[in-house]
Structure formats: C-alpha cells, structure tokens
Amino acid sequence: MQINRDKLLSTAHHLIRHIGSELADRQTVSIVQALREVITKTKNEPSLNNKIPVDLLQAIEDADMKLNDLLNSNDPIEKPLTQSISTSGEFYTQLLDIDPEHLMNPMHPAYLHCLHRITLMGILHPRYLGTFRHVPVNIGLESVYFPPAPLIRGLIDEYCKKFPSVIPRVTKYDGILKSAEISYNFVAIHPYVDGNGRISRLLMNIILWGKQHPPVYLKADKKSRHRYAQALRRANKGNIKPLACLIAISLKEIYDSLLSEINQSY
Q1: Does 156 map to a domain?
Q2: How far from 14 is each of 38, 145, 166, 255, 265, CA to CA, in Å?
C-alpha cells in the first residue's frame, strides 16, 4: 500500500506542473485581454494616445503580437482536462472567450477535485473521491473545529477567488510564506472527509512552483509529523511563520541534496 501511495503522490506532484502552468496561462490571457481593451480604446479615441507613454503602448502591442502567435500555434497541447483540444492555439483561443474576471481567479473546485481523486485513489472509498463532505469532521483535537458541511462550497469558492497569481517570474509575494498561508487556509476549511492535509500540501507546492521552487513534502517521518502538527497549532492561533519555516527547511534540504549531487558528478 505504501508503494501505491508513493506512486499516487508522485503523480499528483507531476500534475502540479500542469495545473500551475494552466493557472499561469489563464492569468496571462486575462492580462492580455485588458491590454487589448486599452489598444481598442486608443484606436477609437486618438486623443488617448497623448495620455499613454509611447513605451507602454509599444509594450502593449508587443504583448498582443505574442498572443496572436500563441493563437495560431499548431503545437500539440500537453495539459490535463483538455481532451477536446488538440493544439495550443485552440487552448488559448478558448481562454480568450472566458470572462476576464473568471480568468483572473483561475483556481477552481474542479482542480481540487482532480487532485483529491488522484491522491486518494485506492485509499478512500470511490464515492468520497473529488466530492465535498456532507458530514462533520474532526481530527481528534479539542478546540479544533471545522466549518459545517453546508458552508463548504461557499468557503471553497471564496478560497479559489483569493488564490494568488502563479505566473513565474512575475509574482511579487514571498513564495514560502504565501504557500504556508494557502496550505493552512485549505486545511482550516477541511472540505473533504479525508486527505485534506495531502491536498493542502499539493496546493502549497503550486505556489512554490510559481516561484520556481522544487516540490516539497512535509511529514516524512515521526519527528517531522510532530513538527507539522505543532506548526498547525500555531497557525490556528494566528501565527503562520512556524509552518513557513518548515517549508523553508524542506526547500533547503532539497537544494543541499541537489548541490551535493552536482558536486559528486564533477
């Protein structure tokens, strides 16, 4: 069973790259939509040309040209949840037809359900896979309560709307601190009957992906599980930094390992 769990976790981590990439694409297209609106207005109202810096207008036009290249691309699509789309051009064309506000908040329950099905497949009963809970849950700790089931959908919708941008090289937030917040906020909702911690850590890794960090996995051994539980207790009291520190420590260990392998190869 442990081997199966490891394989499922590996598959889920692999899916992070695809989901993160699509989230970034959706947000990029939403920005280009706004830029296109500016171009249209400047063409229809020539007086606006004098109010917009020339270098900004040039940047807008360059971005629009790049999008046109994407729209005409015949490169094969390599993303999940796009079975009816065969090329990148088709993918971006469909994105342009989506409401801009919807694109700017690209995280959706469908992604959460997908991660849940993959991660808990073979572990949890099929009827609970990718389905928000309809019953109360607890983790055996007094003073720790989770929202009633009827509130789950609304809370998740709000969670998705507040999910930050993951466009690589563009995000300005602290990736480690933000990944801790995203992870904890999901756990605090506890939308599934089981697997909430696993999904929260995968969402954490999507944020790290946006900052070009490798994926990390917490709770690897008994000592680490204890530290993770302690960090969550501190987060329950409003202090997210201990959880962020655990993420930072895990990243340091990964980078140290990578550097060691590089040194050994030379």
Answers
A1: yes
A2: 37, 32, 16, 19, 26
